[in-house]
Amino acid sequence: MIDLELYKTAANTVEFLKSHNITLSTAESCTGGMISSYITAVPGASQIFGLGIVSYTCKIKNKVLGVDAETLAAFGAVSEQTAREMAEKVRLKGGADIGAAVTGVAGPDGSEGHPPGYVFIAVSGDRGAEAKLLNIEPKDRNFVRESAAKAVLELIKSYAEVTVNG
Question: CATH number of the domain at 4-161, please?
């Protein structure tokens, strides 16, 4: 079932990236591919989107994305440091202008000592990486996932706007 607000956010982000020839790759954990799904639902997304990786475990974050094992051991999968590395690594793997990532706890149970709704999002590009902690009200698992996906799409667009406008 498509969330219309989330789709509109994705469409606005994709259209902005297309209008400025900015490419994107994504690395997702708790959203499980939702961001990639909404991006690719937008016609013409292939002009800017080349890679989306769902890295649901630490093993995949390390082996496929290239997140340092030391980062995962020291800070855990659900951390600002891991989110930043995920964004940078997927950007490099995809040869994209911007890499975006999300890692967190969708619920209903906690993970790594963190409660449901505890989510980090990050973007990375030539200006470096930015990360944010989201404390999403854990109404239910899907609400956390959709809220995180929307926040990532908004962060991608705002990062791209600053890149374009200086």
Answer: 3.90.950.20
Q: How far is CA 104 from CA 95, 112, 128, 150, 155, in A?
A: 25, 10, 21, 14, 16
DSSP label at residue 111: B
Other Cβ atoms within 10 Å of 125 Cβ, number = 22
Which tens digits make up the pLDDT trace of 26-39?
Answer: 999 999 999 999 99
Structure tokens at 72: 């995962």
* 8 alpha carbon, distance to own chain's centre: 17
CA distance 121 to 109: 20
- Please name which of 113, 52, 122 lies closest in space to residue 81, comparing C-alpha atoms: 122
Left, alpha or beta for 44 (phi > 0: left; psi -120 to 50: alpha)?
A: left
Place of tokens 């991006």: 39
Shortest CA distance to 144 belongs to which of 135, 133, 153? 135
Tell me the DSSP string of 64-100. II---HHHHHHH-SSSHHHHHHHHHHHHHHHT-SEEE
Total-model pTM: 0.97
